[in-house]
Amino acid sequence: MIQILYCVGYVKRKPDGELSKLFNYFKKKNNPRTVITYVDLRYGEGKAYHKINFVYIGRTVPGYYYLNENLQRISRLQFQKHLLENKLQ
């Protein structure tokens, strides 16, 4: 199984076809049997995935995260149990 993380930042022009080109190149080079990807609904609806024939399977519950003192988002993976000792000292 292959998982794709695809992120597009703010751009003034719409990057039409960019995901399609990227995905076609990926398929040619890797010949995957299964590909799974996700959409962060804070930033889009996943229409680009639908355009390249991905099948909508379902919606998951939102994940959680932490904010630092500057209100910057910190990955929850940095707070795994085996890492907490260093965070709390």
Please give a structural write-up.
With 89 residues, the protein is α+β, with helices and mostly antiparallel strands. The chain has one domain. It contains three helices and four strands, in the order βαβαββα. The strands form two sheets. It has a two-stranded parallel sheet with strand order 1-2. It is elongated, with a radius of gyration of 17 Å. The mean pLDDT is 80.
Produce a short descriptive summary.
The chain has 89 residues and is of the alpha+beta class. It has helices spanning 18-30, 47-51, 81-88; strands at residues 2-4, 35-37, 66-67, 73-74. It has one domain (2-88).
Task: Map the helices and strands.
Layout: E1 2-4, H1 18-30, E2 35-37, H2 47-51, E3 66-67, E4 73-74, H3 81-88
Parallel strand pairs: 1-2
Antiparallel strand pairs: 3-4
Give the helix proportion (percent range).
25-40%
Major sheet strand order:
1-2
Shape: elongated
- How many strands? 4
Q: Total domains, how many?
A: 1
H and E string = EHEHEEH
Query: What integer is the average pLDDT?
Result: 80
Radius of gyration: 17 Å
End-to-end Cα distance, whole Å, is 39 Å
What amount of the residues lies in strands? 5-15%
Biggest sheet character: 2 strands, parallel
Tally of separate helices: 3
* Parts with pLDDT < 50 across at least 5 consecutive residues: none
| Class from helix and strand fractions | alpha+beta
